[in-house]
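Minutes, project check-in
Item: structure for the 146-residue chain
Input as provided by the requester:
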Amino acid sequence: MQEKKYMRVKVFTEISLEFEMFTNLLVNALEGGSNYWYYFPKESYDEVKRLYDLNAEPLQSRRTRAMSEKFAWVLWNCRSHSFAINDAEDHGETLGHISWDSCKKALRKMHDDYHDYYWQVVTENDDAETADVFFQLATLGEVTFG
């Protein structure tokens, strides 16, 4: 009987996300999946609106977009900004900040530690729970709620 030999192969993959997938994650989090723990403070809201109005193409600016879509657009296109995210029960308490860099780290952490959720994102089969995990990782650095 011949003994079978198995070889371990370490595969390195580039983690990437398309704008539409990124927008879907944030919209799902902000409009449903994370509503139970986060509050978007007025200062962050005003800054997102200002940056969007200042930087969006005229056609994009004229199109009616939900605030969550504007937020995704600003994070994607104005990558040097960070926004405070506060507690849903105590609107004055800042829980963390979200930025382009924190979103990249969140995606990497999903890839490394939350495989099922990551797979749901890349196969475009994500839901509010997946979006909540992403948003918590991007804002808090860990999954704390839920």
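Outcome recorded: The beta strands are 38-39, 82-87, 94-99.
No further action items on this chain.
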